[in-house]
Amino acid sequence: MTIALEKMVPVTVLTGFLGAGKTTLLKRILSEYHGRRIAVIENEFGPENIDNELLVQEQDEEIIELSNGCICCTVRGDLMRTLNDLRIKRENGELTFERVIIETTGMANPGPVCQTFFMDDHIAEYYRLDAVVTVVDAKHGMDTLDKQDESQKQIGFADRILISKKDLVSDDEYERLRKRIIRINPRATITAVHFGETDLKEILDISGFNLNAVLDIDPDFLAVDDAPHDHGHHDHDHACDATCDHDHAHHNHAPHQDSVSAFVFKSRRPFDPDRLEDFLSGVVQIYGPDLLRYKGIIYLKGANRRMLFQGVHMMMGAEPGKPWLGKEKPETKLVFIGHNLPKDVFMQGLEQCLV
């Protein structure tokens, strides 16, 4: 049974640095998102879990009903099993919820969580992965990025990045952190938040994994030249590195060499479809574990419409997008965000796939 996209249950993955305010944000969503019932899945009940006043049952239950009509459950076993259990209970009328939020631990890599929604057919036909939202602590963000590799992955996977505790740092310190985040992931929207006070519409129903929707909302989301982060205009024919080493920040701090970073491939020449498929299949096999998010628009020879392309780790997919309009110059724009990726291998390989 295939469910129409609008009937699928949207899922938000909420991740972020230890102590950055994930749980504060989650409590606010549960208490303020009135009229909608939410199922919250927590990796574990830590000391900083959901407010006791929201709980109406003992914590040794796997699924806990909250006093506001939402439910909360722990992943005691496998995330797939937990999601399927929720689905069965919902279909049987035992539980009522309209969306799912998965809160990961502060040390978690969101990758395996995201992959779950592409690997299991039962989950993929019922749940729609909407976005990864990452909460970053302005006060300790730089230090966390230096010391914890997983924190860079949390930023690399994000569709939205919320920076908390901005009031505890200077404008200069905040700007350095923001620029560092942009070098790691130039495609996520960055917003400063105060103790979870953010517009909930900014983090729910943003269709981060539905490329068609993203491009409808923001046609420039892959337009490197227009990205709002202090790059001057580039006239490169096909490649602008989002880690651009010419970051003209007016301070004496050298850019951090993070293991997670991004680069963009652009070309107005079309791809040979067979060569491109062979190349992408090969790099995903070799570098899949280190490829966090990759997405974009592909210009194929002989195709009158753009192909929309995206992937998480080794799960890669493409679908037809809008036709190229008469005035448009067809162009490929691909962004790759990953862990110690060999940029030159990707750039040269993609170049060789062009007609």
Automatic annotation (TrEMBL):
Pfam families: cobW, CobW_C. Keywords: Chaperone, Hydrolase, Nucleotide-binding. Signal peptide: none annotated. Residues 260-354 form the CobW C-terminal domain. InterPro entries: CobW-likC_sf (IPR036627), CobW-like_C (IPR011629), CobW/HypB/UreG_nucleotide-bd (IPR003495), P-loop_NTPase (IPR027417), Zinc-reg_GTPase_activator (IPR051316). It catalyses: GTP + H2O = GDP + phosphate + H(+). Coiled coil: none annotated. Zinc chaperone that directly transfers zinc cofactor to target proteins, thereby activating them. Zinc is transferred from the CXCC motif in the GTPase domain to the zinc binding site in target proteins in a process requiring GTP hydrolysis. Belongs to the SIMIBI class G3E GTPase family. ZNG1 subfamily. This is G3E family GTPase. It comes from Paenalcaligenes hominis.
